[in-house]
Structure formats: C-alpha cells, structure tokens
Amino acid sequence: MTKTKFKFQKVEGLNIFYREAGDPKNKTIVLLHGFPTSSHMYREVLDKLSDEYHLIAPDYPGFGESEYPSPEQFTYSFDHLASIMDKFLESLSLDEYTLMVQDYGAPIGYRIATAHPERVKALIVQNGNAYEEGLGTAWATLKRLWKDRSPENERAALEAFTLEGIKWQYTHGTQNPQAINPDNWNLDFLKISRPGNHKAQLDLFYDYRNNVALYPEWQKYLRVHQPPLLITWGKNDEFFPEAGAEAYKKDVKEIDYHIYDTGHFALEEFGEEIIANIRSFMRNVK
To answer: Which GO-annotated molecular functions does the record name (predicted)?
Structure first.
C-alpha cells in the first residue's frame, strides 16, 4: 500500500492538490516546489521520510494537479500564490512546520516565513535563492523581460516552455543525464502546454523582479530569527549557482551545509543523500 495520499483542498474556490505522507502527530515538513514542476519533484522525499515525519507537498494554482484558472481571471503573481499557499496551510490547521523550498518555492516560502515567523521552525533550502549574487547567467533573458515586457522579449522567454527547454533544466549540470527520469520533463511539458498556460507562466516570469526587490526583507528575517537552516544545493545550476548558497552564510550563523556536483533539480541525482541530510537535520529541530 502506498505511503503517500493524494488529496484536494478547496482554497479561495480553487481545488488545490497536495500529497500527504506520514503521521500528523510527527514533525511536519511542507515541501514547496519549483518551476516548471509540481509536488511530483518530492515523491521520493515523501516516500522515504514518511516513517519519521509528516509531509505535505502542494501544487500551486496552474501547476501539477491543482486547478488551473485562466490568467485572464486569476492573477499569477508570487504574492498571490504565496497568499493561497498560506491559506492552504491554515486550512489544514498547520500552526508549525519546517519549510523545504526549491526554486519558486523560495519566494513563496519566504513570504510565508516573514508573515508568520513563529510558525516556521526551520528551513530546508535546495537551490532556493534569496540573494542577488545567487542569480546566475540563465537569468539574462528574464532580466531583459523585467526591463521591457515587449513581444520580442516574451518570445525569447518562451524557449523555457519547450520540451527541450524543460529537459535542459533537469539534465544540465548533472553527472549522468541518462540517469534522470524523462517522466519529469514530459509531465511538466504536458501541463505547461495547456491553453493559456504560457501567458500565466510569463506573468510569473515578469513578476519575479518583485522577488528580487524583497531579498533585503528576507535576509533581515534570516538575520533576526536565525531559523535552523539546511542547505542542499546543486552547484552546477545555471539559474542559482553555488554563490546563492554561499550568500546565506552572511546572515545565518549556523548552517548544515551540503553542496552537490549536479544541477538545478539536485533531488533527481542525489536524492538518497539529500533525504539522509533532511532526516539528520530534522532530528535536531525543536
């Protein structure tokens, strides 16, 4: 029998899909996914850690199995996604938890953490950025879009939504691309190719500039609250290189710090090691 349950929760009239594993009486880890994926990226974490921890992994609106409202009727911004995820957690009566964040999970997670620092007992960060020095070379196209949301700059950004573009995110920087399951990019491509989804994703690409503007606020949160912090980072990530991991050392005094010779989705190649990191780290979280 599978350890993970697949559920829906109504939030602001939307069906939010989430995966749940483990005993709710245990410490809770909330797993916030990146782009262009979903809670699917955490499938092994839920399976392997459910013996000791309670795990919740939602899909944001427009991602994975969650409801996909039209971008004409729904504002695709990080403020809005974070607000819905915050309400989602409240609807499950979760009043304390560890946040695991990757990629888009970081700007969503840090908004939740700064709003409710008393709820967030610890942070697990896997290529989740909060520093300008952590913005790698792959941001060049999006930085042009931030300055000018012209049709030309939007077209340049569309490459990220192609099957090859998504596959590149999973395989670039890995030691053995043939070991990365192609189900990952095929599932993501299927979802991102739904009518209107490119518009929703471009809205988020453009809005990402507002995340960068909030970096000082998130850094202050880290300095003031000193949350227990686990870093598990793929150093060959063209979006968030190792400099983004190093930058956390400026603000957090004690870090459980692990760098892996892989790319953006480090769990795909070093899942066993990262899961062991999480298990060890969580045993010390009060």
So the answer is: epoxide hydrolase activity
* Whole-number Å distance between alpha carbons of 107 and 32: 10
State the residue range of the domain holding 127.
4-136+211-282
Burial of 39 (0-12, 13-18, 19+ CB in 10 A): buried
Above 60 in pLDDT, residue 127?
yes
Q: Is residue 206 part of a domain?
A: no
56, 7 Cβ separation under 8 angstroms: no
pLDDT at 1: 46
pTM over 0.85: yes
| The token pair that represents 127 in the structure block | 């290529």
Decide if 84 contacts 16 (C-beta within 8 A): yes
In a domain, 186, yes or no: no
Domain annotation covers residue 259: yes
What strand order describes the sheet that includes 255-260? Answer: 4-11, 14-21, 54-58, 28-32, 97-101, 120-125, 229-234, 255-260
**What total of structural domains would you count in the chain?**
1
pLDDT at residue 153 in the model: 97
Task: Find all residues with CB under 8 Å of 46, minimum gap 6, and list them.
Answer: 3, 4, 19, 20, 21, 22, 31, 55, 57
Q: Is the pLDDT of residue 227 over 60?
A: yes
Going by C-alpha positions, the residue among 175, 128, 143 that lies closest to residue 31 is 128
Catalytic residues: 264
pLDDT in tens, 179-209: 999 999 999 999 999 999 999 999 999 999 9
Q: Report pLDDT for 2.
A: 58
Residue 205 counted as domain residue? no
Residue type for position 149 = R
Task: Please report, in angstroms and rounded to a whole number, the separation of the first and last CA atoms in the chain.
Answer: 31
CATH of the domain at 25: 3.40.50.1820
